[in-house]
Amino acid sequence: MSEEHRHMPDADRLSVLIAAILLAYALAHLIETSNYALKLNLLGIVFVLPLNLNIGATLMATGLTAAGMNWLLRGHPHFEGGSTFQHWILPALTAFVLGVPLYNLPFGAAWWLSFGIGGILLLLVFLAEYIALDSSDVRHPAASAGLVALSYTLFLILMTTLSFSSVRLVVVVAIVFPTAGMVALRALHLRTGKWDFSWMIGSGLILTQIAAALHYWPIAPVQYGLALLGPLYVLNELALNLNEDVPYRRAGIEAFIWLAVFWTAAVLVRG
After folding, report:
1. Is residue 25 a contact partner of residue 102, using CB atoms and an 8 Å limit?
2. What residue segments make up the domains of the chain, in order of their start?
3. For the CA atoms of 121, 123, 124, 126, what is the dihedral angle to 10 degrees?
């Protein structure tokens, strides 16, 4: 019976999928193209969004990853049909987060290191989501815990990279809101089995406001990432406590303690 619930994705499908995603990043970095800008005038404020092949490759890889995850899951022996949307979120986020440092880093040792680590992360998230499909799999609890940890790690990497890249505030806002919301949505679903879209929107709005407030502060990129990861983690823990009917006073005290831990770490960390 244990063998029955230790399924792994088809190795050929998995290798082809990862190779295609990484190839998109590699080709985009090797091929030089012109840079364009999309200008939007909203209420008299002009927003300029950069457009080039690297950004296009990142978005294409994100979509390819989501489609590829669906492709892998539909080959699972215990797949019962229906939507696999919940299993796309973290793989797509992984592909998007991988594209940000590869877009900003110069071609060299650091780029190749990010490229290699990205390939490993893609492999791990594909395997974990495949296992998480079957709740009777003996590795399901470990896979779910790993996916929650990965979601927070990806958020930290993305926020740190955005700060390091010194992108414009409008780009930060456009990225933080959906990313924070999707991380909150998937992390809570993995731990409660419920979809809380109102909490997703609220978390996205709160994190966006904090990100905007910290954008021009003279703090290191890692400090910026930790300062944003803290509130996101606290909001998710608060949602879990409220879902389990923990008294408001206790839930509030725990939230304050965790926020203090993350922000203290952000103050102490340098670089």
Report:
1. yes
2. 1-138, 167-271
3. 120
71-109 as b/e: b if 16+ CB within 10 A: bbbeebeeeeeeebeebbbbbbbbbbbbbbbbbbbeeee
123 near 16, Cβ under 8 Å?
no
Q: How far apart are the first and last CA of the chain?
A: 50
**Shortest CA distance to 163 belongs to which of 176, 178, 144, 153?**
176
pTM: 0.82
How many CB atoms lie under 10 A from the CB of residue 197? 10
How do residues 204-232 score in pLDDT, each as one tens digit? Answer: 999 999 999 998 888 888 999 999 999 99
Report the C-alpha dihedral over residues 123, 126, 127, 130, rounded to 10 degrees: -170
Provide the 10 A C-beta neighbour count for residue 188.
22
Q: Is the dihedral of CA 227, 232, 236, 242 positive or negative?
A: positive
Q: Which of 126, 156, 150 is nearest to 266 (CA)?
A: 156
